[in-house]
Amino acid sequence: MRSIEDMFIGTTFKDFLLRPQHGQVLSRTKENIDLSMPLSRNIILRGAPIVSANMRTVTGGRMMKAMSSMGCFGFIHRRYSKEVQAEKVREVKRSQSYIIENPLVIHQEAIIGEARELIRKKKVSGLLVCESPGSMKLVGVLSTRDIFGLDSELVKNRMSIFTELICGYQNISMEEAELRMSRRRVEKLPLIDDDANIVGLITMKDLKMAKQKPYTTKDSKGRLLVGATIGASGDYMERAELLVDTGVDVILMDIAHGHSEVIKLAINNFKAKFPGAELIAGNIATGQGAKFLMDLGVDAIKAGVGPGKGCRTRLDVRFGVAQLQAVREVYLATEGKVPIIADGGIEDDGDIISALLIGGASTVMLGSMLAGTDEAPGLVENGVKMYKGETSIEASLEEFNDDENLEALMDDVQAPEGQPRPVKYIEGGVAKVIRRIRGHLKSAVSYAGTKSLIDAQKKMVDTPWLYVNRRPLTEAAKKESFDR
Ligand code: XMP
Question: Does ligand 1 have an atom closer than 6 angstroms to the CB of 368?
């Protein structure tokens, strides 16, 4: 096992800068720079190597779907009951990336002023119109063309009425939807059930975008790939069984201390029962921990103890390894044979690039950087959303009602290793964040002097001292680099 180089001991992402290399990319925008990286042994992420954290305030079904649609990934958290978690998996598995499942709706007695405000605020090109407040019965469509004129006019007097509309059904294929829309030269196809209740919406724009996104994380049948989290004790095997039966594509067995006998037993049980299932396990933060999980036959390893924005483990328990050191130790111990998810402590896009190119991670897991988006569970209040460490009192208390083991939970609550933090609300949703990260990753490939992200990693990761400052940055250099 190659041991960690001295220069990386005690370091994290902002301790190093990468030295610009002779660039090979002629145009970042015109050239197709490949950002594909492996999530696990059998799953490749083609959009960006980004994974949303399996946390209550980050990844429910909506985030999972958004991430896979963009060629990234997420893991549905395990704090749902197992039945609810399986239902979330089923919903995402059934959904298609180009269908808007909860389109914006206004009722026909509303006034045009209200509709205009909604269209402006949500930046959409139209609204579906329903019969009455709270009803989902489709009676018309209102587009931006229809909202000029008097604010006080009723929506029903300006909308295209139901009998003139062309509609689709819930499981309509991409091809059929496109055909219906282009035949009638419309841009929107409301999806309805047998009773004309709204069940979704397809827009020509989304269809075109889906066609231009060959990188969506999907299976051979074109369905989104879905991941879900389990623990290593209690009902984890029943949960796993339900998830596997529901069609989950990869399971993440996630516990705080993954270099332990508890997880060894659980992985062995899991593998005996589901020999073909893709399994990722964590968290560990040392080369020894990584080797231990690799020898148990997992398909990827999640690395990080205590770097997360919502963590208190290092403060209160004093265990942990500085995150760049941890990721690099894991890479060296596993010799690049198992994909690594660098989990926690990523504060900006530059940190992602360090984790991948110097650390040797294949993907990074983000919590706080995604918690402010619409797709993360939780409400926006005064321009912020609450991001809660999984073991924070605030997050644990949400479980009180359905937890059978109150005593154990009380211990957790008395000694939390997590804390809540407000994060800024991000307008534009997770797509905006991922697009920005993709742009920065492409720049990084160009600076690295290669034409793909995987080549950039291959070039740098085994001899990183040739490509970075050989000692951690001085305080002055850090100030020059990051103080803005
Ligand atoms: P970021 O920095 O992206 O980190 O917000 C996300 C990761 O933080 C971990 N996490 C915790 N760690 N106590 C901990 O020690 C907690 O309560 C806690 N909550 C989240 C987790 O690995 C997540 O992916």
Answer: yes
Bridge partners (DSSP) of residue 191 are: 168, 200
Report H helices in 317-386.
Answer: 323-334, 349-354
Q: Which residues contact 344 (CB under 8 A, 6 or more apart)?
A: 304, 306, 307, 308, 309, 311, 323, 365, 367
Instruction: Determine the atom of ligand 1 nearest the C-alpha atom of 344.
Output: 4
Give the CA radius of gyration of the chain: 24
Angle at 295 between CA 294 and CA 299, to 5 degrees: 40
Residue 92 has pLDDT above 90, yes or no: yes
Task: Tell me, using a 6 A CB cutoff, whether residue 345 lines ligand 1.
Answer: yes
Which residue in 79, 178, 92 sits closest to 390, CA to CA?
A: 79
pLDDT at 400 over 50: no
- Give the chain's length: 484
Q: Which residue's CA is minimally distant from atom 24 of ligand 1?
A: 53
Nearest-10 crossing angle of helices 287-295, 261-273? 30
Domain 105-212 class, CATH top level: alpha beta
* 105-212 has the same fold as 6-92+216-402+410-482: no
Question: Which tokens hold the place of 212?
Answer: 């231009």
Active site residue ranges? 311
Q: Which residues pair with 340 in a beta bridge?
A: 301
Spatial strand order in the sheet of 300-303: 73-74, 50-52, 363-366, 340-343, 300-303, 278-284, 250-254, 227-230
> In sequence order, what are the beta bridge partners of 40?
43
Is the CB of residue 445 less than 8 Å from the CB of residue 33?
yes
> Where in the chain are the domains?
6-92+216-402+410-482, 105-212
Q: Please give the DSSP secondary-structure letter assigned to residue 404.
A: S
25: three-class secondary structure by DSSP: coil
DSSP collapsed to 3 states, 383-401: CEEEEECCCCHHHHHCCHH
- Please name every residue paired with 65 in a beta bridge, in sequence order, or none if there are none: none
Distance 116 CA to ligand 1 centre (A): 41
Give, in degrees to the nearest 5, the angle at Cα 52 between 453 and 13.
55
pLDDT above 70 for 73: yes
Give the pLDDT confidence of 30-49 residue by residue, as tens digits. 678 999 999 999 999 999 99
392 ligand 1 Cβ < 6 A: yes
State the DSSP H helix or E strand holding residue 117, giving kind and residue range, or none if neither.
helix 112-122
pLDDT at 415: 75
**How do residues 101-119 score in pLDDT, each as one tens digit?**
789 999 999 999 999 999 9
CATH match of 6-92+216-402+410-482 with 3.30.43.10: no
